[in-house]
Amino acid sequence: MGDGTEDVSVCVESTQVFFVFGSVRIVSRLIDGKYPDYQQIIPSEFSTTITLSRDEFLRAVRIASIFSGSENEKVRMVVGGENGGKIFVHAESSGQGKNSTELSGEFSGDTQDVVLSPRYLIDALSSFSGESVYVLMNNSSSPVVLRDTLDQKLSTYLIMPIRG
To answer: For 80-103, how does the pLDDT look when each residue is reduced to its tens digit (9 = 90+)?
Structure first.
């Protein structure tokens, strides 16, 4: 995988496809059965809508992940409530200390306090290419939906909260 001039071997079978190039082997298998209707699990209505800078949110989550500890990695996102209309990302662990970052953004709807995996947040935010991201939620136990403002239909990420 150097300059892009290597040969790729492709083998297609009825339920599998193989790609081999250099020392890399990729196998893809056809899944038996019906693919689940993923649209059923993505909420269509939300009680809270947040619009944030993707880079600022990503930076805050990366910093918070350092303070979240290695065993129970989790970050808390708090919106509204005692904070007014402010948005915070918090993390703490006994061995790493505490971190709290206030984010600038737009918030409408209900107050929220949700605990999420920093890894999943980082994966989602890193995959988006727009400057801003929508964070959509209903409550602390419902899925949180992240959408790239650049392309909402193609860039949707669903994250289940962690019990805090």
So the answer is: 877 767 899 999 887 888 999 999
- Taking the CA atoms of 130, 155, 109 and 86 in sequence, report the sign of the dihedral they define: negative
CATH topology of domain 43-159: Proliferating Cell Nuclear Antigen (3.70.10)
Helix, strand, coil fractions of the chain, as percent rounded to 5: 20, 40, 40
Query: What secondary structure, in 3-state letters, does 128-141 show?
Result: CCCCEEEEEECCCC
Rounded Cα distance between 103 and 87, Å, is 5
Helices 118-127 and 54-67 sit at what angle, rounded to 10 degrees? 160
Domain ranges of the chain: 43-159
- Residue 8 in tokens: 């790729």
Per-residue pLDDT of 60-72, as tens digits, reads: 999 999 888 766 6
